[in-house]
Amino acid sequence: MERKLVKQGNNALTVTLPHEWIKAKGLVAGDVVSLTPTDASLSIFASKKKFVLAKTLDFSKSNEKEVWHMLQSNYIRGYDRFNITHKNPSLIQRVVETSMTGFILETHTNSKSILQSIVSTPQDSLEAILKRVYFMFYELSEKLVLVQVRKGA
Question: Least packed by Cβ within 10 Å: which of 47, 69, 70, 90?
Fold first, then answer.
């Protein structure tokens, strides 16, 4: 079987995978495949799928204790991703930082947050984890600068 290489960006080429193979492996857009290059060939392997159980929670009227109990009980039930609606971002951040070891705030705004377990995260979200760590360091550095400015240093 032959496939045509398609230019994508400045330095990349893309090849499409046969529909029959994709269907047989149960792959969808966004799934990860493993590539093994040799001198004359490139082998493509379907990665083992891991299903992430996600739950949507509304903490708009919840206190810290209620947030903690809901997150813990749902984690015990097997959920490892939470789409959270809230009105108090500092409350959510405090609960995650003090009580949710093994979780990161993948997205965190004034009204919505996504909490993801990094203990059971598939490899394809490593980029999201590194991105979040970068933003955490960035936020901390901004706070340090503000503290220094207030001290008059």
Answer: 90
